Amino acid sequence: MAQREIQRWSASFAGRTKADVGEGLASILALANATDFISFSGGFPDPSTFPSNILVDLLRELVDSGDPSALQYAPTEGLPGPRAFMRDRLARLDGREPADAELMITSGAIEALELLGKSFLDPGDQVIVEAPTYLGAIMAFRSFEAQMAGVPVDDDGLNVEALEGQLSSGRGAPKLLYTIPDYQNPAGVSLAEERRSALIEVARRRGILIVEDVAYRELGFDDTRLPSLWSMAPDTVVQIGTFSKTFFPGVRLGWAAGPADVVAQLVRAKQNTDQCAGALGQRLLEEYGRRGGLDDQAVRARQLYGRRCRLLMEALDEHMPLTGVTWTRPRGGFFSWLTVPDQMDTVELAGQAMAEGVAFVPGAPFFADGGGRSQLRLAFSRVDDELIDEGVRRLGVLFRSALER
To answer: Is the pTM of this model over 0.90?
Structure first.
């Protein structure tokens, strides 16, 4: 098809769609099922952790029960049974149960971000994000023409002191502050406990709504579990989560828990998007969870990802003893974050790595306001154990060559 024909309607696209949201997320997702190279690219859960035959049995039970709710439209905020299950689960895991009006079911965490943007952001509104941060959040906020400012992270997560400095500079009053406090994507770091209290204090004092993304919270490699921001400050935090990492991505289910007036507005926003998350998926999740499936699956997943993280750290220690190359040592989640010397461009290196049969994501797409050319993300969650060392070995050879040029 001629290029002119492909672009026939582009001049009519809404202005907000012309924001530079990039192709990064789509290109990462395109690698989900690739098998012809060693991919440290996408943050995908390993299919070996997914439920299998039990879903067939649950589906048969739901259909045979004669209850049509699983096959019908659902209330926009979610079916009563699944929502009750999720409230119980949050009470057990986070130590606080949301009231009925403080919780809704979403079509994944990415939809929750879209609903927050739709509900809160006018063009030019200020949003604070971590630097680096989840690419999907950057894309969601940018699609609403928000102005984003990045706050640096270190081994203890978001630097609250740097945040205070930025807020005191008078560059505008942000409406939202987006953070991933547990095993952050892409850096793999977690927000220290003392910083959690400090961050809440800053947000309350300045009237900023914290958006806490807990996508990886249940995937810690040990029993350490810091309090969630939402459990500490339910008046100031909306927690968004997903079951894509702990159930399976194909179900596309998540949640938002927060102040009742915020959740009510998100429900109104959802009425004009997909109207409701899929009822069948909600019921499958509820039944699977009530029978202990989610808890058992999380144990298996933590063991698998913890082992792969250890293999990655061992491979980096062996093959990356290069001056100026550092990496994070995550205690959960899917990712490690590498920093290389400034003369190395990770965008260029990514293309060269693909030629060597290895894929990673360069750091630049994870920064809302520039940066990341000397950083990259390695995802270890779906790389077979026996391929991790070889993949890192190839990267080590490539990086050494780049340093010598």
So the answer is: yes
